């Protein structure tokens, strides 16, 4: 699955060196599904669907240039093509470090 999502983030407020936030997103996905059926062959279904996601996270500031980021997102994409109606759900936990030049 690949896609493009537009997100909106809402900063709750800054508490000491931590800024928690919520996020909501909406976009489109391209889904390529393949499945091998035992003794029956292979099925391939391609389609596109909408993506929705919601989550929360926090930016933790170490100094003026360095920020640690941790976030959780729930993402759902659907596929309705070729007689297949399915939801593809993902729970995503991300962490990262940003350095501003």
TrEMBL record:
Keyword Lipoprotein belongs to the record: no
Presence of the UniProt keyword Signal in the record = yes
- What is the protein named? Opacity protein
Q: Which InterPro entries match?
A: Beta-barrel_OMP, OMP/PagP_B-barrel
Record key words, sorted: Signal
Q: Which parts of the sequence belong to the Outer membrane protein beta-barrel domain?
A: 7-101
Kindly indicate where the leader peptide sits in this chain.
none
Superkingdom assignment:
Bacteria
Q: Which SUPFAM superfamilies match?
A: OMPA-like
Pfam families with a match to the protein in the record: OMP_b-brl
